[in-house]
Please model this.
Amino acid sequence: MTYDRDLAQRIRIALASVPDVDTRLMFGGIAFMVGGHMACGVIGQDLMLRLGSEATQRALQEPHVRVMDFTGRPSRGMVYVGAEGTGDPSNLQRWIDAATAFVATLPPRRSS
Model:
């Protein structure tokens, strides 16, 4: 599966001031890891976000947002935002900030 490389580059720019960011090819797209935790990514044309259960419920009330169901089953605490919801740079930044804020609440990842 291919992913929107322009959106991925815009995410890189949005994450420029965030420490400990890494990328991994996952789910047929690209995932952005913050502190070892997946925060966001791109699958096809969609922005993928890890927001946690509470923020996911709020996000689902917004236009262009749907539950992440990559395997056909909903992924808890994760959503897709369609391309229409990521075109505006300030809107994209808002989504990225929400995902990085959530992963900042998670316990540190242990090194293997």
About this structure: The first strand starts at residue 21 and ends at 26. The CA atoms of residues 25 and 83 lie 20 Å apart. Strands lie at 21-26, 29-34, 37-43, 46-50, 65-67, 78-81.
